[in-house]
Every structure is written in C-alpha cells, then in structure tokens.
Design goal:
The protein is mainly alpha-helical and 410 residues long. The chain folds into three domains: 2-58, no CATH class; 70-173, Tyrosine recombinase, N-terminal domain (DNA polymerase, domain 1, Orthogonal Bundle); 189-409, Intergrase catalytic core (hpI Integrase, Chain A, Orthogonal Bundle). 50% of the residues lie in helices and 10% in strands.
Length: 410
C-alpha cells in the first residue's frame, strides 16, 4: 500500500496482486486533509488510514464472501500465510499458485470452483499440457512435484474454509498420483571409510594456505554432519558462540536460507525449536583447527574481511572473505569432493541419514535419535524423554570412534 500527497489531499493505492491475465489489481481512495491537523496528528491519521484500508481490502472487510474470485482471494491468502511459512517456501507458493493455478481458475468465484476443474489442472501437470502465466516452458511433472503443488492448492481452500467462504473443500476429493517411497541412501562402512580417508588426505597434502583453509573447513563441516546429523541450513547458520568447546556441546537455534538475488539470511529452525547436540572430541578438534585458520585469514585480509571482527560473534562456516555462505555451497563442495576422489555420489543430506542409521544400528533409542535430528515429532516425544545430554555425549563419542576405526581399515 502506498500514498502520495497532492495539494490538500492524499491519494492511496492498495495493491491486491494480479488477475488471471497477470495485470495488477489495485484499489484507490482519496482522503482530504483537515487543515486543523498538526503535523503529528496528520502522521497519526495517515497511519490509521493505512491500517483501516489494509484491513478492508486484505483481511476481508467489505465485499469478502464466497463470491470473491480465486485471483482476488490469493493476496488475502498470501497475507495470512506469509508469517507461517519459511521465506523460500512462501516464494514457491506465490510462484506456483500465481503462475499455474491462477490462469485457469482465477476468474471463478472461489465458492463455485468444482472438483472437475481442479482435477483437470492436476491431470495437465501429469501429462505436461499445463501452461504458465510467466510463459516458462512446461513438461510432465514427477508425482512428488504434483503432490507438492496439490498441497499448495489444498492450503488455499483450507484457508477459505477457515474464513467461512466455502462450506466444503473441493480439494478433498482430488485424485493425486501416489509417490513411490524412495529407499534411504547411506554410505556403507567401506565407502564411509574411504571418504574419511580422502578427507584427511586433502587436508594433509601441501597446498597454498587459502586452499588449505577451505579444505580444513570442509573436513570440519563433514564431521559435524556425520556426528550430529545437523541439516545443511542449520550448519551454515552456526556462529562460534553456539559452540561450547568446554562442555562439548553445540546449540542449534538458527537456519540459513537464500532467496534469489538476495544475501543469505537466517531464521528460526525448521520446527521453531532450538536444540543442543553433543560434540565429539574429534569433531571439536577439527572445528578448533578451522577456527585458527579463519582467524589467520581475517588478519591477512584486514579491511577486505567482510565478517565479524570478533571471531566469537562470527559465523562458523564462511566464504574466504568472511561472509556467511549459502546453504547450497556445502552441497556443491561435497559433490566436487566426491568427484575428485572417485567416490560414489550421494546427496549431502544422505550424511544425515548415515548418522541416523549408524546411531540406530548402535542400539541408540529411537526417541534419542529423533531428538538429535530435531524432528517435529519432538512435540510429542519431549513429554516422555528426560535429560539426554549425557547419553548424547556418550553416543557421539561412540560414533566418532566408529568412524575413526573405519578410516584406519580403509
């Protein structure tokens, strides 16, 4: 919402998204200034008007019932949902709903949209005959993608149902393709041993300091994945203040994300809860080794260093000039590492699966593993699980020893 002043009047513009043809939907209104207002009173009045018209057009006052068109309802849906979804997920919702569903059903009142109409859209996603508003090329989508898009559509109608715009949700009766359950891929013991040996060889090989420091950071990062099961977005959001080397613990309280064209930022973790993990002695030693290199790098660069000058306040895993790295960087580094060393390619996230698999194989309680992974089911299990820090420390050391033995055997 924006406004500008012309003479003794203010002209307001309220943006309500785009219609089915991609044209901006806008509402306009004018307010004439009361000359008796002081500048302070005028500022307060403008703030009040902004609030009132935002409530009217975006949150449902005025003409807001089942006759509202799908295209007009989307901005209301986005406004209500933007604080409940992560920034990147929210952007995907906006793009998908605007560019795929809106062109087909945007002109229809939301209460009049039928199951058959939605089913035709779903079928077009499967066979690739759908068209996008942004004219991007289309192709048949995988069952998992179709299911994801359907969940976005269901969310819109669930919100419309919550706001009492519709009596029933047509999305409840859609036929959606079944997603075949994929086998969890992990490294077996022989492959894991070779990978750990390759990690050491890359670090111990003589090379320029700038290259060596990256290798040292990468080894610390991989060991952190393998011994804590941390997510890549959680690892890239870590600060040195989150690591307690004295007690051998690490606090995971942030998650990193990067939107296209913007700098990497941090937010609350996936389930909104922070958690404490035990840190094995070997992993801690690799992290301390990397911290030493990072401090040395900061001193060498001087004013060209773009991170925190206070090492304790800075991010753990950074670019060569101290900036926080994107969550995609560890993935790219891992792929390059596997290729250089002729190791079987697996996704970086598979190291999290590897961690969980070896913990369970070692006899660790499922609830303990669930807590260490930070799964959303913790909301249920936390009522039954007592203080597990000592047990986590013991398990982390045991797992670290297993990895060390495998490396010696490779």
């Amino acid at each position: 919402m924006s406004y500008k002043r012309k003479g003794d009047s203010f002209y307001f513009t309220v943006d309500l998204g785009r219609d089915v043809k991609g044209r901006k939907i806008r509402k306009y209104f004018t307010w004439k200034i009361d000359k008796r207002y002081t500048e302070k009173q005028l500022a307060a009045k403008l703030e009040q008007l902004e609030f009132e018209y935002k409530e009217k057009f975006l949150n449902g006052a005025g003409e807001f019932d089942g006759r509202i068109k799908f295209a007009d309802f989307l901005p209301i849906y986005f406004e209500n949902k933007k604080n409940t979804l992560s920034p990147t997920v929210f952007d995907n919702y906006v793009s998908t709903l605007t560019n795929i569903f809106n062109p087909v059903i945007g002109h229809i009142p939301i209460a009049e949209i039928k199951v058959q109409q939605l089913q035709r859209i779903i079928n077009s996603l499967i066979d690739g005959s759908y068209k996008r508003l942004d004219n991007k090329p289309t192709k048949p989508l995988a069952a998992s993608s179709v299911q994801r898009y359907c969940n976005m559509l269901k969310s819109v109608f669930t919100e419309a149902y919550r706001l009492e715009l519709i009596d029933k949700k047509p999305t409840d009766r859609l036929t959606i393709p079944t997603v075949q359950k994929q086998k969890t891929i992990v490294y077996d013991k022989a492959e894991l041993g070779k990978m750990l040996t390759a990690l050491d060889n890359e670090v111990y090989y003589k090379k320029p300091l700038s290259v060596l420091s990256v290798k040292v950071m990468f080894r610390a990062l991989i060991w952190l994945y393998l011994t804590t099961g941390i997510r890549r977005c959680e690892a890239t959001a870590l600060k040195w203040s989150d690591i307690d080397f004295g007690n051998g613990t690490i606090e995971i309280s942030k998650s990193a994300y990067k939107k296209k064209g913007e700098e990497t930022k941090t937010k609350c973790p996936k389930n909104g809860e922070s958690r404490s993990e035990a840190l094995s002695l070997e992993c801690a030693s690799y992290l301390q080794e990397w911290k030493t290199y990072q401090v040395q790098r900061r001193l060498e660069l001087g004013s060209a260093w773009h991170g925190e000058n206070n090492p304790q306040k800075g991010f753990v895993f950074t670019s060569v000039d101290g900036k926080i790295i994107s969550p995609t960087v560890p993935t790219e580094m891992f792929s390059d590492f596997l290729e250089r060393n002729n190791l079987p390619h697996i996704k970086l996230h598979a190291l999290r699966h590897t961690f969980a698999t070896y913990m369970l194989d070692s006899g660790v309680n499922v609830k303990t593993v669930s807590e260490m992974l930070g799964h959303s089911s913790l909301k249920v299990t936390n009522r039954y699980v007592h203080d597990l820090r000592d047990r986590q420390k013991e398990n982390a050391e045991q797992l670290s020893n297993i990895y060390s033995d495998l490396r010696k055997q490779a």
